[in-house]
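Researcher: Excuse me, tokens okay?
***
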Amino acid sequence: MNAVSHISSTATGNTCLAAALTAVGIPLAEKPFVRVVGDGIRGERHVWFFEPNSPDGRMQTKELIAAWHDDAWHLANPEHPFAYIKCALLNRERLVDKVKQDVPIACVKRRGKIALIPLDAPPATEDLFLRYL
């Protein structure tokens, strides 16, 4: 294996995956990341580099990266620590996406009363709420 294939097989641009790898004891490489800009990339991208395995040799970086990209891996390995971490971080991503899709609610306080009004409420609904305050 040459140096480039080793680096690419133990590197990721996914920060959640990088966090999961460090959580199970995979050490970051001596140069832990690079920031990439340009060449058609919008904004900035990060690439994280890892050692090939955990210090005790029990966790292999390439295998864990493959497990992250395998949607069924955590079902086949439900008690593996990486499965818990993978599910937690993927659930976090889904929860954040859900929050981003939701319409915020304004909290309006008047004369000791509170109204919670969706920001996309029609003006007539908003007027109705405000009249009762």
Notes: The chain has six helices and five strands.
